[in-house]
């Protein structure tokens, strides 16, 4: 069986620019929606309250709940659309699979708010873990060295907090120091900001963005 080791440049099917625009819109609208939802949630604390609390408080706080849940679903849907375009253009399947799973998780977070309990937790963990892996494996798209360095830094920042929570629970020193809401933001925001950067990168590079193929690659 032939395994695709990295991205393959297919100039006849080049949809990377469109995929980058979708990622840029997806991340930007979600970041803005978070900030808007926080302003509409009386007494909300970014230190003690999670992002999901914006859309899953009991009783739901409106319009905060609708803003957050619709936005996170849109984040997932637009990311899935970008995955389709990246794969159609010859993009790496490992990266695309991680982004697709994370996107499905984001849709699940919106459809099953935090008051649904285990369903929400499952989709949230799915989003966090595969979101950080998406960032780490993005080098396989043929990005330049500065973007690869940024991906390593942001990806491991998110992954470190995720691993600490899985190994030592919510009472580990990182979460105690940052607060539950603060620690979650150090998981979500690096992923979100990197998607913004990568969306801009793919959008601006256009047709010549992957002259270096990772079947020969950097590493």
TrEMBL record:
Keywords: Membrane, Transmembrane, Transmembrane helix. The keyword Chloroplast does not apply. It comes from the Archaea. The chain crosses the membrane at residues 20-37, 67-87, 94-113, 119-139, 146-168, 174-196. This is DUF998 domain-containing protein. Pfam families: DUF998. InterPro entries: DUF998.
């Amino acid at each position: 069986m032939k395994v695709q080791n990295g991205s393959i440049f297919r100039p006849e099917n080049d949809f990377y620019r469109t995929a980058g625009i979708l990622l840029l819109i997806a991340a930007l609208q979600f970041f803005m929606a978070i900030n808007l939802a926080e302003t509409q949630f009386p007494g909300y604390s970014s230190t003690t309250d999670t992002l999901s609390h914006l859309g899953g408080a009991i009783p739901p706080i409106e319009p905060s709940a609708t803003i957050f849940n619709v936005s996170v679903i849109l984040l997932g849907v637009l990311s899935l659309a970008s995955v389709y375009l990246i794969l159609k253009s010859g993009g790496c399947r490992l990266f695309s699979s991680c982004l697709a799973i994370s996107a499905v998780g984001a849709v699940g977070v919106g459809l099953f708010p935090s008051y649904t309990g285990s369903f929400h937790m499952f989709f949230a963990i799915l989003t966090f873990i595969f979101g950080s892996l998406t960032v780490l494996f993005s080098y396989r798209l043929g990005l330049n060295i500065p973007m690869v360095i940024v991906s390593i830094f942001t990806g491991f920042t998110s992954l470190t907090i995720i691993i600490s929570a899985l190994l030592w629970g919510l009472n580990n020193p990182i979460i105690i120091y940052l607060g539950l809401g603060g620690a979650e933001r150090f998981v979500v925001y690096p992923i979100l900001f990197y998607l913004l950067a990568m969306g801009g990168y793919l959008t601006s590079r256009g047709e010549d963005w992957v002259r270096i193929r990772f079947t020969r690659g950097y590493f």
